[in-house]
Amino acid sequence: MKFASRAAMAAATVLLAACQMTDQGNQAQPKAAETAAIAPILATPDAKDVHSYARPLEARVYHVALDLGIDFATERMSGTATLDIQRKPEAKEIVLDDKGLEIESVADGSGQPLDYKVGATDKNLGAPLTIALRPDTQRIAIRYKSAPEAGALLWLTPEQTAGKQHPYMFSQGEAIENRSWIPTQDSPAVRQTWEAKIRVGKPLTVVMSAPRAVEPVDNGNTRTFAFRMDHSVAPYMIAIAAGDLAFKPLGPRTGVWTEPAMLDAAAVELSDSEKMVSAAEKLYGPYQWGRYDMLVLPPSFPLGGMENPTLTFLTPTFIAGDKSLVSLIAHELSHSWSGNLATNATWDDFWLNEGMTTYAERRVVEKLYGPKVAAQQVSLGVDALNKAVAENGGPTGPDTRLHLDATGRSPEDVSSDIAYEKGAAFLRTIEATVGRDRFDAYLKGWFKRHMFQPVTSAIFLADLRQNLVKGDQALEQKLMLDQWVYQPGIPANMVKPDPQAFAEVDGATAVFVKSAARPQAWDRWTTDERLRFLNLLPRKLGKGYLDELARGLGLDENQYNKEIQFAWLDLAIGNRYDPAVPLLERFLIAQGRGKFVKPLLKALAKDQQWGRPIAVRIYAKARPLYHPLVTRDLDVLKLGG
Predict the structure, then answer these.
(1) H helices of 298-422, where?
(2) Catalytic site residue from 58, 259, 269, 332
(3) For residues 290 and 212, what is the distance between their CA atoms, to the nearest angstrom?
(4) Is 354 a catalytic residue?
(5) What is the pLDDT of residues 80-116, one digit of tens each?
(6) How far apart are CA 397 and CA 418, in angstroms?
(7) Is 33's pLDDT higher than 60?
(8) Is 332 part of the annotated catalytic residue set?
(9) DSSP 148
C-alpha cells in the first residue's frame, strides 16, 4: 500500500490560526502560551466525527468556563457556559452539540444577544445548537438548564448512598452524554481547556476532573467550588460529583475521595496506587497531570472505572478486601497516557484508547505483581476476545475490525471487547515481533509526539511505519499492520497466550467435567484462576454439577467478589438454576455496573418461560439505582420498572 509520508502527516492536521479578539466587556486577549497550547483539528476524512454536529474546521471551541448551581430538588444543573472560540474569518456560525438542554439566552462576550437555533433531535446524537456569529465574535455565553433526565447525570437519594444522610450526584459523559449538561462541541476531536465554578448546598462537597483553583467559598447555605484544567482534553473527560465526600491521601500525589463510610476500605484496596504511577512512568514517560486521585462512587456507577484526568471515577465493586481486582486501577491509570494524552479523534477508533490501555495495564500489573499474574490476565483477555468475535458476527463480522464504522449507531452500540482485547493483542504481537525494549521506546515516543492531541488509526500506522518499521519490508510483512486495523477477525500472526498460565486450572476443570469433583486447589486459587475455571466450564451442566458448585464451592453465598459472582450467575441463568435466584436478586439490586447487570438481565429476559418473570420482578426494584446509560439499554427489553 501507499505509506503516509511526514509531509502527509503534517497536512493531516490543521491548527486554525488564532484570531484577534475585539468583543467588548469581559473579552480577553489570549496569551501567546495559551494560543500555542490549543490542540489541532484534524482535517482528514477519517477524523470527521459522525457523532457530533460540530464543524470545527470552520469554528471551534477551545476553552469552556462553567458557572453552575446544583439543584437536587429539581435534579438540574443551571447557570452559564462561556465558550472561547476560534473561527475562520468567513465563518458565519458555530455549531455545538445539545441533548435536551433548556437554553435561556445566548450572548457574545460583551453581553449582546446572538441568534441561535436548536435543530431536529436524533435519539442518539441529540440536536445541533447553531449560533450566529458577528464578524468579531470570539466568546459566547450560554445561559441554560440541564433537563431532569439528562443522560450524563444520575441523582441519588440519601437512601441510595452508603451514608444514608445526604443526596449524591455524579456524571458519566463518555462517549457522547456530556452534551446533556454542557453546551459545547462534544467530540474527542475538539480538545478544550476548561474551568468551573460550582455551587452546592452545605454540607456537600463537589469534586471534578481538574485541580481545585481555590479553596471552597462559603455563601450562607451554599458553598462554591472552583476548578481549572489547563491541559486541553476531550470534552467527555469533564466530570463532576457532589455528595458527602471525604479524602484520604495514599501517597505524595495520590489519594482517594469517597463517602466517609467507605473511606477506610477504599484506601486499603488502593494502597498500591503510588507504586502503580511510578511503574507506569518507567514504561511510558512522566505522568503529565499532577495528581492522580480517585473517587469511589456509589454502586450505581455504570462502569468499572472512568479515566477522568486527575480524578479517576471507580465502581465500589472492585473493593474485594484482598486487592484481587486492582488491575482495574492499573487500567484507568494507564489511560493517563493512552486515551488522555493521545485520544481517539472519533469513536470509530475507540481501540486507540482502550486497546492501548489494556496492553499498558497488563505491563503495569506485571511490574507490580509478577509475570504469572500478567500472563493469566492476557490469557483471560484472549478468551474474552474469542467470545467477542463470536458475538460480533464471527471472523468476518465488520464489527470485529479495530477501525469501525459506527455511522448511524451510538458509540456504546459498537463498544465491545474487540477494542480492548484485539487492540491489546495487536500491540502484544508488535512487542513480540520487534522486542520489548524496542517497542517500549517506541510507545514512549508515541505518547510524547502526540501529547494532548487527537489521533486516528491512520496516524498511528503512519507513525509506526516512520518510527518503528523504518522501511524494513520484511518487518512490515511480519506485522500485518493493515490487516490488524482494517480487516475483521484475528490475524494469523497473533502471539498466543502462555499455555502454562492456567495449566493447573485447566486440568482441574477437565476433571470436574468428568466427575463433578470439587477442585482441591480452589481455596488457594486467585480470582483470575477461579474465573478461568468457571468460564471454561460447559455452558450446559446438570443439576448435580451446579449443586456441587453452589454448595461445594460456596458460590451461592455472598463471600466472593463481584467478578466471581457474575461468572457464577451467568452460568446459573443459562441452566435455569433456581437456588441461585436469591443471590442473583441481591446482586442485581446491590449495584448498577453495566458489565454485570446488562448481560444478566438480557439473558433472563431472553428466556421467556423461566427467566423473564424473574427479570421483570428484579428490574422493578433495581431500575431506580441504575444510571441512564444502563437503563437506556435495558428499557428496550420492556421489563417495566
Answers:
(1) 327-334, 351-369, 371-391, 417
(2) 332
(3) 12
(4) no
(5) 999 999 999 999 999 999 999 999 999 999 999 999 9
(6) 11
(7) no
(8) yes
(9) T
